[in-house]
Design brief:
Blueprint: E1 2-5, H1 9-19, H2 23-41, E2 47-52, H3 56-68, E3 73-78, H4 85-97, E4 101-102, E5 110-114, H5 126-137, E6 141-145, E7 166-170, E8 173-174, E9 188-192, H6 198-201, E10 207-209, E11 232-236, H7 241-253, E12 258-262, E13 274-276, E14 285-288, H8 297-304, E15 309-312, E16 331-332, H9 336-345, H10 353-358, H11 360-370, E17 375-378, E18 383-387, E19 390-394, H12 406-419, H13 424-441, H14 451-459
Parallel strand pairs: 1-8, 2-3, 2-5, 3-4, 5-6, 6-7, 7-9, 10-19, 11-12, 11-14, 12-13, 14-15, 15-16, 16-17
Antiparallel strand pairs: 1-10, 17-18, 18-19
The structure holds ligand NAX and potassium ion (K).
Amino acid sequence: MQKLFDEVNSLDKRCYEKFLLSEDLLMEHAASSMALYISENHSSYKSILIICGSGNNGADGITLARLLHTKFDVKLYLFSDAKSEMAKLQLQRAHALGVNVVDELSNADVIVDCIFGTGLNKPLNQNCENLINTLNSYESIKIACDIPSGINSLGQVESVALEADVTITMGALKTSLFTDVAKDYVGKIVVADLGIQRNLYELDSNKYLLDESDMNLPFRNKKNSHKGSFGHLNVVAGCKKGAGIIAAKAAFGFGAGLVSVVCHENLDLPYHIMQTHFISENCTAIAIGMGLGKYETQEIRRLLNKDVAKIIDADLFYDELICEVLNQEVVLTPHPKEFVSLLKLCAIADIDVSELQNNRFLYVQMFSKKYPKVVLLLKGANVIISQNEKLFVNSFGSAVLSKGGSGDVLSGLVGSLLAQGYKALDAAITASLAHAIASRNYKKNNYSLIPSHLVEEIRKL
Ligand SMILES: NC(=O)C1=CN([C@@H]2O[C@H](COP(=O)(O)OP(=O)(O)OC[C@H]3O[C@@H](n4cnc5c(N)ncnc54)[C@H](O)[C@@H]3O)[C@@H](O)[C@H]2O)[C@@H](O)CC1
Ligand SMILES: [K+]
């Protein structure tokens, strides 16, 4: 996993003070990294338009223009006068070298957006919006320097933002690049070297971006085993029974030794999934909440207080009963609307979904602070998983998963790993990664996936 940072100004400052690396030196390296990326990945292209703002993001762009001058047909467009000391200095250097500064925008093979970086601190005016809309309309390859212009330090987009194919971000990964909103703008994210190894540039963080290597699949290493070695998951099916059945099928395909659906009515289940009317004696984990609908409170309370691992989803986030388990190491998997209800029930915040989506990291952090034992998995374009105020982002998900039933598959995967003895956090991380990565392996079009396809892809991981 890689560290994420809410801000990097303090990391830059530490470079100047502790490592005697000046701002000028860092900027030269930042621009060199961008030049190298462009030379290595877009050498067949001829023309490059670099659009610069007044601050140091613009200064990065001016530096880049100097470095690529004559290698490509470089055009430097200054959207505003250079204001920062570095922008002024870099402009003098560019002028001295004869870099082509243009007065009008024109299309190019590659566009580099250096209008605003981390210094965006107010709403865009009409001119800025027009500029960004015009750039978005070009069919060029678009590269954002540090962060696509228009995304602020909280990862919010107030009006428009540059739709980048690639974001080359300076020194370290920023949290703002991993909000749900940002996902439509950032494209591929690359970290630029600032002339200091990343592990030396970075300090501690409580936020991490998950990599594929963080997925710890339940491979069976012991030869001497039997079905009981891999746990028994009980999936509680409610009035929408399909949800429980989908979860049960996913759980079985993900390695649980036994899976039973708990339901008072008789169900038509595949032969390998069992049915029980009450919780099994040897149950090692319970999955509950999906499709639950109306139910008898005392019965659910008994299940929630049973001393086994639990994954809780869906309808239970609308019931005060949920507050009774928040001192346990349970896994909760709400989508945004459910999380809003949960936040209200546990008196953390009374907000609407758009406020949550604008500040996902903030509210996950607040919840995790109040309930440190709980593993929270907030669904979204970029899933956030937290425990004890540590946050992990899974950015592998895609629109393929935006379907009824995908969440039930996820609950089944988490339940399966819990039943097999995974710790709550490890179960949530591996299940979430498997869910998202498997969906990427689905090779048909991106609208046709159904839960059984997803389970098939998960079984092939
Ligand atoms: N500090 C350092 O050591 C390094 C900084 N680097 C670059 O520096 C950038 C940050 O530079 P700055 O702090 O100068 O900030 P920016 O360059 O992001 O923007 C600041 C400028 O934009 C103006 N501005 C902000 N919001 C505006 C709006 N909505 N409409 C119009 N004008 C607006 C500000 O008044 C200021 O002049 C980073 O994103 C990164 O690209 C990199 O070169 C790496 C090294
Ligand atoms: K930018």
